[in-house]
Amino acid sequence: MAARFDLVTIDSPDTDALAAFWSAALGLHEVEREDGNRWIVLVDGDGTRRLGIQRGVVRPGSIHLDLSCASGDFDSELARLVRLGATELHEPRREPYGSIANLADPEGNPFDLCA
Length: 115
Hints:
Strand content: 35-45%
Distance between the termini: 12 Å
Number of strands: 9
Shape: globular
Mean pLDDT: 90
Structural class: alpha+beta
């Protein structure tokens, strides 16, 4: 199964403050938090994941897409995206919550593949 769009992620050095801002601005609430404040997910009233706040360096283009796939499809989906022109920015990681690859599209825009 091909990767599917999951959510938009904003990089921030202060994830708590940014999550509080977007929660108030959009009427969202927090449902997921990992590694203290490294990763925060905000959802709407129906529980739909809308926004990810990830600890990172703020720079132009620091908003990126997160794509998701089944864990059993991770390696083949990563290979497919690379064949399509994506570049791996770092070695894929296996975390307790799943696998993640940091990629860039053919124009250098960052995105992640998560399983």
